[in-house]
Design a protein that fits this description.
Blueprint (H helix, E strand, L loop, with lengths): L5 H48 L8 H11 L3 E5 L5 E4 L7 E6 L5 H11 L7 E6 L8 E7 L1 H53 L15 H56 L4 H27 L10 E4 H15 L5 E7 L4 E4 L1 H22 L3 E9 L3 E8 L6 H5 L17 H11 L3 E8 L2 E9 L6
Parallel strand pairs: 3-4, 7-9
Antiparallel strand pairs: 1-2, 1-5, 4-5, 6-8, 9-10, 10-12, 11-12
The structure holds adenosine-5'-triphosphate and magnesium ion.
Length: 464
């Protein structure tokens, strides 16, 4: 429906408003027209009556009187010059006078009311009009005249005004219609067109809107839409990358498990070698391989990025942290980095041991990499203490601190890494695992003097 469109609505409203304005102008101007018309007759009558002055006894022939009256378009004229003298031009009336209008003190409302009344009678009437003579030529002038000529003139005038109003409203509505079309409707259509194009392929960055409007409100809408589309496109691309990565990881995982299993079989053989060094190393190698295989299997069996639910057991923390330190120590070869711990023997935790190994391993690993990258010597310390509500583990280092860029999205996968060769997964994995235990992993502090991460593991209440 045309009138439900923006241009249609504007067209309709403009016609209504302009007509309303015209009505408000119409009534007073018709009233003014009537007053002017009557005043003009009074002035013509005054001029006609002056002919009487030229005669010595204010008397003229009836023919002349009729002619003067006809010229003035009235039936009778009475001009009162002063208290004593009246000039009268008259001819007999064929009907009584039906109304008298005094123009001398008529207010605006009276004029409007009298003008409206004129439109109603349909038969001829005689009216009397009283006014003030012009140029102070007397006290009062009074005429009688037929009503119909006045009515006809007023109808003619009204009709003219009506058609003029109609013309004005059509022209102004048309102008507004085209203005609205070019200022509003077309830009809105373009906006919708862009949205539709973008919707069809939101990954195509060339379809993001390019704001160009000079109208402030439209420009704001375009800018917001541009932001929205840019963010959405970036998110979709990121998702796409993650999906591809996920697939790649699953494939690698699948074959890696086979490779590791072969390595495990070979290690089994090595265990049989009767060499004291081999005997010491082989069990550790087996354990490492075990861990790697389990990790592959878990990832494959869950088939998603989430960590599996923790298998909670109670174990002494010292043993676990020693294992981490030992593993990390293997990666150091005289780098000037010391890794140690300050944990009392009695500190036990209830957690998934393998998962906690990965959490502390990631934190210590990050610290080692940070110190190494700084090119200075440094220390890494793992501390822990039991509290009433759980266990608090602090992993501190004397490294260079976390770069500001990395701090913003530290725990978000693929976002926090600023390290060359880093994937930005380590802290995300660690935080997710700790959350899975109902605990928290937080950055306790970081500065040029070092960094500390705090893990809090609540006391596990075993389900009944
Ligand atoms: N102890 C630390 N000292 C200084 N910077 C750190 C420390 N721990 C983390 N960071 C910074 O935080 C970033 C994110 O760490 P995260 O473990 O999530 O990813 P990554 O180590 O870069 O990659 P990944 O662990 O996946 O191989 C690192 O790139 C590093 O810049
Ligand atoms: Mg890391």
């Amino acid at each position: 429906m045309f009138f439900n469109s923006l241009s249609g609505r504007f067209l309709l409203l403009t016609i209504v408003f302009v007509m309303l304005a015209e009505v408000l102008i119409f009534v007073p101007s018709v009233a003014r027209f009537r007053a002017d018309y009557l005043q003009e007759r009074l002035e013509l009558a005054q001029l006609a009556s002056l002919a009487l002055l030229a005669t010595p006894d204010d008397m003229i022939t009836q023919e002349l009187a009729d002619e003067l009256l006809e010229n003035a378009e009235v039936l009778n004229i009475v001009l009162r010059r002063n208290e004593m003298r009246e000039l009268i031009l008259s001819k007999p009336l064929n009907a009584p006078i039906s109304d008298t209008y005094d123009l001398r003190d008529a207010g605006a409302l009276t004029l409007v009311r009298d003008a409206i009344i004129v439109f109603f009678p349909s038969e001829e009437k005689i009216i009397r009009v009283i006014g003030r003579p012009i140029k102070g030529a007397g006290l009062e002038i009074e005429t009688t005249q037929y009503l119909m000529p006045l009515r006809d003139a007023m109808i003619e005038y009204g009709r003219n005004i009506f058609f003029l109003s109609l013309l004005i409203s059509v022209i102004s509505s048309a102008m507004l219609f085209f203005a609205v079309r070019s200022l509003l409707v077309r830009p809105i259509r373009r906006l919708v067109g862009n949205m539709t194009r973008y919707r069809d392929n939101p990954e195509d960055a060339t379809r993001v809107i390019k704001p160009d409007s000079k109208v402030i409100e439209l420009r704001a809408a375009q800018d917001t839409l541009q932001d929205l589309q840019t963010q959405l496109t970036a998110h979709l691309k990121q998702k796409e990358r993650l999906a591809q990565l996920g697939e790649a990881v699953a494939k690698i995982n699948h074959d890696l498990r086979n490779v590791l299993t072969t390595t495990q079989l070979l290690t089994d053989r090595i265990e049989m070698v009767e060499d004291p060094v081999v005997a010491r190393i082989a069990p550790k190698l087996m354990k490492s391989l075990d861990r790697a295989i389990k990790l592959c299997e878990n990832t494959l069996s869950f088939g998603k990025a989430e960590e599996p639910a923790p298998e909670i057991t109670r174990f002494p923390l010292v043993g676990l942290v020693s294992e981490v330190i030992e593993g990390e120590g293997l990666r150091l070869n005289g780098d000037g980095i010391k890794i140690g711990m300050e944990i009392a023997d009695g500190v036990d935790v209830s957690a998934d041991r393998e998962q906690m190994f990965r959490v502390i391993g990631n934190l210590v690993g990050n610290a080692r990499q940070a110190i190494l990258a700084s090119g200075r010597d440094g220390e890494i310390t793992v501390k822990a203490k039991s509290t009433d509500t759980g266990t608090e583990i602090l992993v501190s280092d004397t490294g260079p601190g976390i770069p500001e860029r990395a701090q913003e999205k530290l725990f978000q996968p693929f976002q926090g890494s600023v390290r060359k060769g880093g994937t930005g997964l380590g802290l995300a994995i660690a935080a997710e695992i700790v959350r899975g235990h109902g605990g928290t992993l937080k950055l306790a502090e970081t500065s040029i003097f070092g960094t500390s991460f705090r893990i809090f593991l609540p006391v596990q209440t075993k389900p009944e």
